[in-house]
Amino acid sequence: MNLSLYDVASEYLEALDFLSAQDEMPAQAIADTLEGLAGDISKKAVNVAAYFRNLDAEIDAVRHAEKLMNERRLRLELQSQRLKDYLLKNMERCAIKEVKCPYFVIKVVKNPPKVVIDQAALVPAEFVKEEVIRKIDALAIKKALQAHKEVPGASLVQFNRLSIK
């Protein structure tokens, strides 16, 4: 039976508990048993790490493909907009308001009026909205907490991560 890493780790912990309670068993026998189980855990850990490294490589490949597809989409959007502008300018130039074909109708239509700000500094204050953006300085909070200062609503928490080199 092929046990999962979780199962092998559970067996290791059970053996550790059992062997720790044995007074008559020689210390070398306990060490050998635990070393054997630890070897199984190491093999499983290597297999799990190899698998997620393979997944990470696939994720990188997908990200790269997404980047290329996004670049291609942006080029197509730009080309489409250029052709729309080209068609509009030439229809306006020739004073043609409408072109009909069996598939669609092309019309030159007026958009609603749009405000264009030429010089923002000259716009009166009554037309200016002030935006307040509240941004928390996590680095300053970290430094304060490390200096044993109290910061309401914040705490320092340390997590573990895997390092594979």
Write up this protein.
With 165 residues, the chain is mainly alpha-helical. The protein has one domain. It is 56% helix and 4% strand. It contains three helices and two strands. It has a two-stranded antiparallel ribbon. Strand 1 and strand 2 form a beta hairpin. Helix 1 runs antiparallel to helix 2. The model has no long low-confidence stretch (mean pLDDT 88).
Taking all Cα atoms into account, the compactness measure Rg is: 34 Å
Poorly predicted sequence stretches spanning 5 or more consecutive residues:
none
- Main sheet characteristics: 2 strands, antiparallel
Q: How do the strands line up in the largest sheet? A: 1-2
The number of helices is 3
Distance between the termini: 31 Å
Averaged pLDDT, please? 88
Approximately what portion of the residues adopt beta-strand conformation?
A: under 5%
Number of domains: 1
In short:
With 165 residues, this protein is mostly helical.
Topology of this structure?
Elements: H1 5-20, H2 27-93, E1 98-100, E2 105-107, H3 138-146
Antiparallel strand pairs: 1-2
Helix pairs in contact: 1-2
Features:
mainly alpha, 165 residues, two-stranded antiparallel sheet
